[in-house]
Amino acid sequence: MNTYHLDLLQKHLKKSLERYCQLCDFSSDRQYYSNEIILSQTKEIVLQYIHLFQTLNFLDRQTEYYQHGFIFTYKETDEDFTSNPDCADIMKLLTDSYQRIAGSVSKDRFFLPIHVQRISSEEIQIFIGVVTKDQHHFTISIVTHQTVYPRPYASIGNNRYRYLLKMMETYDPDDYATLKTFVNSKGISYHQFRKDSFSFFESPFYHHYLKIKMIPVLEDIMLSTLSYKEIAYKNGFSNYYQLYILFHRTYHFPFHRILRIALQK
Fold first, then answer.
1. Phi, psi (rounded to 5 degrees) for 124
2. pTM given for the model
3. Dihedral angle at the C-alpha atoms of 86, 45, 20, 24, nearest 10 degrees?
4. Is pLDDT above 70 for 69?
């Protein structure tokens, strides 16, 4: 794992939790969503992303990254968390993060994503979850999940590899006969390109391109009501079978193990 993989995980988790919050806000049953339901469903989202990233070899398969989930409820006027000194510091981080975003969103929003980090010399702790606001009792519930990662060994700040990310964003196999044609059109040595791809992505460029295409598919399966065929076309696959082969046979990440949360709303 390098910082690129960890940044990618956080980016997609934050995006999915924002979409989850919108689903909750727009649901006619939102007043019935208990903190326990939110905890269960958001845990499923976090675990599915971690599992997918482990399956794609972006994260170590043997490491337990997920620590635990918890619910913390307080009144908007509360400022003192010393009643629980063991978690007072992280509670303050989470509530401060909520206060920073609360003023910039519509008062009609009762579910907001939240994300904070604590970084030490040995590990990165990431707390990600959902803030729910009780519209009648002026209380805030923070439903969050703690995940812990070892400090990555490589940095995206290394300019030598930055060009690979730009190429990953612009590459479309339908526009070029071969990957080599695409690379040569950018005036880049194909030999050096292959070496850099292995060094940074830890896999060939095209294999990584397919892995990246799989990540938004996971979000659509969990958080949309689209059919699998519609999800395939939305995410740039030529047909459903191509998507099925990639998930089920290449990476053994079958659809039936992914909870379709939006269909339960």
1. -120, 120
2. 0.91
3. -70
4. yes
pLDDT of the residue at 258: 97
Residue 137's pLDDT is what? 54
Q: What is the pLDDT of residues 226-255, one digit of tens each?
A: 999 999 999 999 999 999 999 999 999 999
The tokens describing 32, both together, are 């019935």
Q: What's phi and psi for 217, nearest 5 deg?
A: -65, -40
* Closest alpha carbon to 142 in 96, 206, 194: 96
In angstroms, the first-to-last Cα distance of the chain is 35
